[in-house]
Amino acid sequence: MTQESYPVMGNTLPGISTLKSKASACGYGESCAEVWRFALFSLLACLIRWDTGNDDGTKEYSNLDFIGGNIIEPLFPVECLVYEYHTVIQTASVLPEADSARFNSGLIDETGDPWWQSANHGLYRELRISIRAYQLLSTLWDEVYFTQAKTQDVQIKAPARPSFPLGNAGDMISVFNAHGSPRSRMDPLPVRNTGNITPRSPPCSASTAGYSATESRIGKHTMKPYFGITGGWLTFWVTVACATDMMLFGYDQGVFSGVIVTSDFLDVLDLNGKTSLVGTVTALYDVGCFFGAVAAVLFGERLGRKLTIICGTTIMSIGALLQITAYSVPQMIVGRIVAGIGNGINTATAPVWQGETSQVKWRGKLVVIELVANIAGFSLSNWVNFAFSFLSGPVSWRFPLAFQFVFILIIFGTVPWLPESPRWLISHSRTDEALQIIADLEQKDVNDSYIITQHGEIVAAVQYEREHSVPWSQLLRGKTGDQSGTGAIRRLILGMGSQAMQQLAGINVTSYYLPTVLMQSVGLSNRLARLLTACNSVSYLVAGFFTIPSVERWGRRRLLIIGAAGQFFCYLLITILIRFNEKPDYPHQTEVASASVAFFFLYYVFFGLAFQSITWLLPVELNSLSMRTKGAAVGTATNWAMNFMVVEVTPIGIANLGWQFYIIWTVLNFAFVPTIYFFYPETSNRTLEDIDRYFRDNKSIFVNNTPEGLCVERPARYAEIEQSLVDSNAGMLQAKKMQIEEGFATVEQHEAA
What we know:
Elements: E1 12-13, H1 16-25, H2 32-52, H3 57-60, H4 77-90, H5 97-104, H6 125-140, H7 143-148, E2 154-155, H8 169-173, H9 231-259, H10 263-268, H11 275-303, H12 305-324, H13 329-356, H14 360-388, H15 395-402, H16 405-414, H17 422-427, H18 431-442, H19 449-467, H20 472-475, H21 488-504, H22 507-511, H23 514-522, H24 526-553, H25 556-581, H26 589-609, H27 614-622, H28 625-657, H29 661-679, H30 688-697, H31 707-710, H32 716-752
Antiparallel strand pairs: 1-2
Helix pairs in contact: 1-2, 2-4, 2-6, 9-13, 9-14, 9-15, 9-16, 9-18, 11-12, 11-13, 11-28, 12-13, 12-15, 12-16, 13-14, 13-28, 14-15, 14-24, 18-19, 19-32, 21-27, 21-28, 23-24, 24-26, 25-26, 25-29, 27-28
């Protein structure tokens, strides 16, 4: 490249009239918004042509896989060129050694030539474009440009020497988005106005921005979102965060069962012989969880999935600290309630976040993994309780309570840097950010037709639900308005029902009180009861792992029916065996007591197989997009309300009803089998949009007569609909490419004339 072919300071930026002419030549309107949008890309395109030494820079980029941007909005020929060049620059080589020193010294050579004239000294063209882009950006942010360009052409502003290393052109033109966060290349660009134009300054200096302009050309790399992790590994870390959250939930469920039989705890809080008060202290945790789930309904949709979990975990940490330092029943009660509020918020949000960031083929498995982690936390709490039962004094119960901070720290260390739910972002008009996250989660380019289709389906679903949304005031009165076609109330009730069934299956008769049950109903010693409780939790965990490969292969319905039938069988035999064990003169009390313990173990296996995890998954899958946060939160609130009832009545029922108390859970588990068979549709191997489509197309509350509600594999009709959308989008992209090429030709003809 010669010195003459490289533009020096004083390049002219065209004014409004010139830009309108260029926009018209491309076949676009002359509205102010389009003109200014066109202006930005037109100018940067000129810089690219100058710095590549290509008089016809358009030809080099005419064969594009995809144009970039939102296919719904108008696209300009120069826009696609800028987007494509962003990729070209990002893959550029590093500077030669000789140029690196000059670059680090401010791009001034030995002869004192200005840094913008360094084109003749071996600098890579990508770096020159970075310089030109920075120069242009400085001009666009200058008040003089915005004032003068309305009526006349202006000169490019002479830039000061950069105080930071320059990155690539794509970085420089897109440092910040509207929220002051690092801007992706799919974000709206800084200059966008529909009327009165006002200059805009960067939210912060480039040297201190979250998106630092650090370039790979001097041995450094630009900071990427999520530390550069995409695809399966990004989903893995979301799962780690959600699973840790649910492990904390499981640990909290199990740890108090060992605490309330610790002698020092009973002495310090003066609870010896106060069975009813012990039950209240235990159960008030679930009251807090209920109100936490309600809080997630009120604030979760406003805050987003990530921030809601962080708030919930912060509240949990406060509650845990109050419990650890408690020396009185009132402080312990406050600590239990506060911790419960945080846990209720988290358990209402984590499954939703996991479900909305998972690929279809992994969604069920990953949510199940969360609930298996819940079992792991429960199992860990039992073994910690057993280990500390050999110690005396405050450490025997304060340390098990303090151990939950391990999980809290992991949550604080992972959640902030992971992606937000793309569905939540789209529902809050942050569609470009959502598109990038979908691409990152799928490990595909944002321009891939599959990504565009997924993004478009969510956008369409959000728009549909927004147009048919129903306020809570009407929904609670049974009125659904225009949303009657979506089955909103039916889906809400099914989600609530799945959570109610989990608690009414009798799991927390044993989760909170198994040592008490084994000591009072079976007659075991304190130490042996703790040991068997810990061993039982291991079989529970193994059963939970079996669900991971089975939940998509066997389906939700089949596993739930098998689980309910197995739980009924176990409680039936437990009831019979404890009846004989309570007979004072029965000669085989030891044998029937041992047999009842075996069926408590088997009950956990059946519960871990299905009801532990799938009942949490269904509210996320069954509710429509606009109702998903509300539906999951209401389902969780139902779970905690039932949980409170079970935990409150269990010690009283064991003490006063004896073996007859277990008849309740036997009957309830039997009733779950026909309930699931007739009313719950299959949701495995379906997208969330497939499930929306099912409820719109099938109005009957009975699902046993609809093949799409029973089959485990994805219905062929749904797959055909999605494929047609993918093909349609691919055709639109090809047509748009041809339109862009025609636009280039029109611009060239206009300029030649």
